[in-house]
Specification:
Blueprint lengths: L2 E5 L4 H12 L4 E5 L10 H4 L9 E4 L2 E4 L1 H11 L12 H31 L7 H19 L13 H19 L11 H11 L4 H4 L2 H5 L1
Parallel strand pairs: 1-2
Antiparallel strand pairs: 1-3, 3-4
Helix pairs in contact: 1-3, 1-6, 4-5, 4-6
Bound molecules: glutathione.
């Protein structure tokens, strides 16, 4: 039976799960929820996820929320299928978990600050110094992570670490779409820009692209 994925278009947490479902070659049905319509607050969804968040999956009679728990579950429950997202070796697996944790702990904070300044502060109220500080925070964080790129992907072979980071890097394109004067490419080191292109060249990547970004 196909897994059901509840997601929100553009949610970085949901995007990493969708990339994982694709990499694991698992059949799944998508249910897109609208944040503005309050879908995550509706009683039928609250029964699945009392924290009212996406992603949430239903696999048979098993319901699971929290993106990292979902990616690890998919990788373990369907270990022999598709790409291994958490390597078997304890040290390599710990490295993947460490990078995922860094993305959630540090990268998301830096990108949230930039998104806030760029997309949520009205253009007339925008403060150049605050915006520059937020932009520098993202550039520093991305340069930090780029140091891990000794091979094609963050922890060597493609892993959950790449799927955790990718949506945050891609969000810069969305910022550029919404604010054309914002130069997203400039925030990426050449190594990180090449890594981004490698993710986007994955055969299933297009399946995961947020629908409402395309329409914009
Ligand atoms: N720690 C959670 C975070 C999930 C999360 O915050 N999702 C946001 C979307 S990015 C959400 O569902 N927000 C609900 C809403 O705004 O109604 C995870 O890793 O899955």
């Amino acid at each position: 039976m196909a897994i059901t994925l509840y997601y929100g278009s553009g949610s970085p947490y949901a995007w990493r799960v969708q990339l994982a479902l694709e990499a694991k070659q698992l059949p799944y049905e998508r249910r897109v929820l609208s944040f503005s319509a309050g879908d995550t607050r509706k009683p039928e969804f609250a029964k699945l996820n009392p924290r009212h968040r996406v992603p949430t999956i239903v696999d048979g009679d098993f319901v699971l929320y929290e993106s990292n728990a979902i990616v690890e579950y998919l990788d373990e429950a369907y270990a022999s299928q598709g790409t291994r997202l958490y390597p078997g070796d304890a040290r390599r697996r710990a490295t993947v978990r460490r990078i995922v944790s860094e993305v959630d702990g540090y990268t998301s904070e830096a990108t949230d600050a930039l998104i806030e300044e760029l997309l949520y502060v009205k253009p007339e109220a925008r403060d150049a110094a605050r915006l520059e500080k937020a932009r520098a925070g993202v550039a520093d964080e991305f340069a930090f992570l780029a140091r891990y790129l000794e091979a094609d992907f963050l922890a060597g072979p493609l892993s959950a670490a790449d799927f955790a980071l990718y949506p945050y890097v891609a969000f810069l394109d969305r910022c550029h779409q919404r604010v054309p004067t914002f130069d997203a490419e400039r925030l990426l080191t050449p190594a990180l820009a090449a890594w981004k292109r490698r993710i986007e060249a994955l055969p299933y990547f297009g399946e995961t692209y947020p629908p409402h970004w395309r329409a914009a």
